[in-house]
Amino acid sequence: MSLRTRLVLAFFTLSVVPLAAVTIYSYTTNAEALRVAAEREADLLAGELGMRMQSVTAQLSERVEHLMDIAELQTAADAASQSAVSSSQSNAAPAGASVVSAKALMDRRLRENRRIGVGRPALQCRLDSRERKRQT
Fold it and tell me: Which pLDDT tens digit goes with each residue over 45-63?
């Protein structure tokens, strides 16, 4: 074997092989760390998305309940006005009073729902409550 061949083999075994081993080790370690970080981030995002979905579901439930309350109040007001029409021939004052009381009840509940924030986004309710605290 010539001196040139020996030098090439020595260079190859002393520099290229260890460098390749370090490169492979570094690549596998970084790839695993990247997978773990991506998995952790995906879990965090999934949890955050789940909390947002719960919040949206709760807000939608509140709004549907609010709409159902409005529908019930409207039905009561319609029933009161129907009874007012039917009893207007005999006794108009009490029937008119029941229509007025049903509408007053509906208006009061709507004002109460607006005050507590039903039907509004939660952020707007928080901003309103902070504004009220500043005013006092």
Answer: 999 999 999 999 999 999 8
Quickly count: other Cβ atoms within 10 Å of residue 99's Cβ: 19
Q: What are the pLDDT digits (tens) for 68-101?
A: 888 888 887 777 777 766 766 555 445 455 556 6
Q: Give pTM, 2 decimals.
A: 0.45
Distance CA 44, CA 50 (A): 10
| Structure tokens belonging to residue 79 | 């029933």
Q: Are 69 and 109 contacting, i.e. CB atoms less than 8 angstroms apart?
A: yes
Q: How far apart are alpha carbons 94 and 102 in whole angstroms?
A: 12
* Number of other residues whose CB lies within 10 A of the CB of residue 7: 10
* CA 114 – CA 120 distance, rounded (Å): 8
CA dist 100 and 104 (Å) reads 6
